[in-house]
Automatic annotation (TrEMBL):
Lineage of the organism: Eukaryota, Metazoa, Ecdysozoa, Arthropoda, Chelicerata
Occurrences of domain CCD97-like C-terminal (ranges): 173-271, 274-332
Region feature Disordered, mapped onto this chain: 249-275, 298-341
PANTHER family: COILED-COIL DOMAIN-CONTAINING PROTEIN 97
Residue ranges the record marks as coiled coil: none
Entry protein name: CCD97-like C-terminal domain-containing protein
Secretion signal, residue range per the UniProt entry: none
Pfam families given in the database record: CCD97-like_C (PF09747)
Compositional bias of kind Basic and acidic residues: 320-330
Comp. bias regions, Acidic residues: 250-270, 331-341
Family annotation (InterPro entries): CCD97-like_C (IPR040233), Ccdc97-like (IPR018613)
């Protein structure tokens, strides 16, 4: 815990500054050097407040101290100084309690770690197991381990970001890496899954231009491995897609205030205009880019973004090499170099 001046020392310093302040100001009012002395007096006042600010546990509790300094009457000064001293004593006591709690929590953590069967260090074959005291000593030293410091700093950085919606460069890079992996493996960006996430846009840009065979292939189910629960889930998914599409249609109609009736819309969908293969490809590319952007922006509601944003496994090889170089050149303490070696 950082050393603090006692409340009596703080108040005594303020009293001395207060008396000097009153003397100088009184002298300055009848002197040709009044302005000069007023500046000096203000300097003493600021010095006393600086002492209180640097020494008191909580800046928010310095109101009574400032009031004590500003009072002119000696009687009022004594009363306010007493109040200030009481305030500082209370704040200091609270701070000491917090420090004691933190120390106890730290002791409990070290005790729990030392009593565990976790990995502490590499040992030679036949070497006796580490004792409780040895484990605790190793755990104590990890407080200055560069890897621990790195993760603590990372947690603090995220907490400072708070509720900001702005994505960090690191988060963007990790999501892009996850996107590349999903594009080359899995079903996340298959027609079926993308239709489930955005059925209206899929129908407008791809579905309405598909042939009957393509539509049948899209909805085809593999009955050879289908179970009753799988069939039930497929039915539920299709109902959800239909419901979501209706909601999107209603929202679109409300936005653009279309006057066409439902029957006219259905007729329009049935009589989709003929488009060339090149136009189909352009529409598909535009749809895919929209879905990619939705993923990168964090708009896919069912996706677990925390598994990507907080996962260093999604840092690209180039990014990892750059980070390792920075760690190496930033390392100043010998024990950090030993740990890396």
């Amino acid at each position: 815990m950082a050393a603090r001046m006692s409340s009596k020392t703080i108040v005594d310093a303020i009293c001395r500054s207060r008396k000097q302040l009153v003397s100088v100001v009184n002298y300055g009012t009848s002197s040709a050097h009044g302005t000069e002395l007023d500046v000096i007096a203000r300097g003493w006042l600021y010095d006393s407040l600086w002492i209180a600010t640097r020494s008191a546990p909580d800046d928010a509790k310095l109101g009574s101290i400032a009031a004590a300094v500003e009072e002119v009457g000696d009687e009022a000064m004594e009363t306010n100084v007493a109040n200030a001293e009481s305030t500082i004593d209370g704040a200091t006591a609270e701070s000491e309690v917090v420090d004691d709690v933190a120390a106890e929590q730290r002791r409990q953590i070290l005790d729990t770690v030392a009593a565990s069967e976790g990995f502490f260090k590499h040992q030679q074959r036949g070497e006796p197991d580490l004792s409780y005291e040895e484990k605790r000593e190793i755990a104590e030293k990890t407080r200055v381990d560069y890897e621990v410091d790195f993760h603590v700093t990372e947690i603090e950085r995220r907490s400072r970001r708070g509720s900001s919606r702005a994505l960090s460069v690191q988060t963007k890079n990790r999501r892009y890496e996850a996107l590349e992996r999903l594009k080359t493996g899995g079903e996340y960006f298959s027609d079926k899954e993308m239709r489930r996430r955005n059925p209206l846009l899929f129908e407008q840009m791809i579905g309405r231009y598909m042939t009957e065979k393509e539509k049948l292939d899209l909805d085809k189910m593999d009955f050879s491995t289908l179970t009753f629960s799988g069939l039930l889930m497929e039915h539920i998914d299709r109902n959800e897609v239909t419901s979501l599409r209706r909601q999107q249609q209603d929202l679109e109609e409300a936005t653009f205030e279309e006057s066409d009736s439902d029957s006219e819309e259905e007729e329009c969908e049935d009589d989709a205009p003929h488009v060339s293969a090149t136009e189909k490809r352009l529409l598909r590319n535009e749809f895919m880019n929209t879905m990619y952007e939705s993923f990168l922006s964090g708009k896919d509601k069912d996706y677990d973004y925390d598994s990507v944003d907080n996962n260093a496994d999604f840092d690209s090889l180039q990014t990892r090499q750059h980070d390792e170089e920075e760690k190496y050149f930033d390392a100043e303490e010998p024990e950090i170099l030993d740990t890396v070696a």
